[in-house]
Amino acid sequence: MGVLQRVLLALVSLAICQSAAAVEALQISERQPGNSESWVALSIVLASGLTAWFLNHNAPRVRVFGSILAAFGCLSIAAWFLLYVLGTGFLENPKPNQTPLDSAKPVLLWIQAIISLLAGVALLSVAFKQSKATDNLALGAANEADRYGRVSRVLHWTTALLFLALIPMGIFASIIPEGTAYRLEYYVVHKTIGVIVLALVVFRLFWNRKSPRPALDASLSARERKLAHAAHISLYAMMILIPVSGFVMTSFHGAPTFFFAWELEPLWGFSKTGTIVWGMMHKYLLPYLLYIVLGAHILGALKHQLIDKHKSAFKRMVS
Questions:
Q1: Average per-residue pLDDT in the chain?
Q2: Which cofactor does this sequence's record say it needs (predicted)?
Q3: Which of 92, 94, 119, 222 could serve as 175's disulfide partner, Cβ 3.0–4.6 Å?
C-alpha cells in the first residue's frame, strides 16, 4: 500500500472512530411528532417536480412561473446560509473536524451560497425575458430527433434540482454538532431525497432505452462531443454512486436509512473496514469528483449559450 493510500485510510479511520458516538446518538434519537421532517422532504420533492413541469409547460406564462420558482429555490439556499447558518453563528461552533479535509466545508458552503445567489438572480432575468414570449411549446412525451421530450425534461430537471439541494444539505448535516435538537431531522430529509434521486436516475436510464436520446447538437465539434459524452456518463455515475455509497456506509455503520416516515434497518452487520472504504467514497472522493464534473457540465452549457451563441443547445432540454 502506497503512502498516499495509507494517509487516506488513516484519515477516514480517524473519522469513523470519532463519529461512533454520533451514530449511536442517531440510532436512539426520536422522530418528530407526526413525522414533520417527512413533510419537509415531501415539500422539497413536490416543489422540485412542479418546477420541472412548469419549466416545460405548453403555456409561456407557466414557463415563466417555472423559472421564477427555480430562482426562488436558488435564492432560498442562499438565504438559508446567509440568514440562518451565518446569522445564528452556527459556523463558529460546528461539529469538530473528523479529518483535515472537513476544514474545507465552511468554504464550500460559502461558495455554494454565492453560486445559488447568482443563479437565482440570473433565473429572474431569464424569467423577465421569457415574459415577453407568446409562443406555445408543442412538446410530446417521447424524445425527438433534435430535442428531448417532456418526460426526459421533467425527469432531468427534477433530478437536477433535488441533487443540487442535496449538496449543501449533506455538508451542513455532517457538521451539525452532536446533541443538536434537529440533527436527526436533517438526516431524514437528506436520506429521503437521496433515495428519490437514485430512483429517478434509474427510471431515467430505463426511459432512455424506451425513448432514445437525441443526438448531440450539430454545432458541437468532435472534441466537444467527446467531452459532453464523458460528462453525461460521469454525472449518471455520480448520481448513482453517491446515494448508494451513502446507504452502504450508514448500513455498515449500523444506522438506518430513512424514506419519509419509514426506516430501513441495515441489511448487514457492523463493519469498521466497510465503513472506512465506503465512507471515504461518500464523504471525500465522490463529492470532490462531483464538483469537478458538475462544474464542467454547467460551464460547458453556459459556454455554448453565451459565448458560442448556440441558442438551440439549451432549447433541447428546456424552453
A1: 82
A2: heme b
A3: 94
- Listed residue (233, 234, 215, 203) closest to 313, CA to CA: 215
The residue behind cell 449538496 is 167
d(CA 196, CA 204): 12
Residue appearing with cell numbers 459524452 = 229
Domain span at 235: 3-315
Q: Per-residue confidence at 26, pLDDT binned at 50, 70, 90?
A: very low
Mapped onto helix, strand or coil, the DSSP state of residue 264 is strand
Residue 191 β-bridge partners: none
CA angle 180, 291, 168 (to 5 degrees): 20
pLDDT at 8 exceeding the cut of 50: no
As a whole number of angstroms, the distance between CA 144 and CA 162 comes to: 26
Distance CA 185, CA 191 (A): 10
Burial degree of 4 (CB within 10 A; 0-12, 13-18, 19+)? exposed
Nearest to residue 275, comparing CAs of 32, 38, 13, 98?
13
77-81, 227-231, 265-269, 312-316: the lowest-pLDDT one: 312-316
Number of Cβ atoms within 10 Å of the Cβ of 182: 12
**So what's the pLDDT on residue 63?**
92
* Strand, coil or helix: 48: helix
Domain count, the chain: 1
DSSP one-letter code for 132:
T
Percent of the chain with pLDDT over 70: 85
The CA distance from 308 to 211, in Å, is 29
**CA dist., res. 109 & res. 59, Å (int):** 36
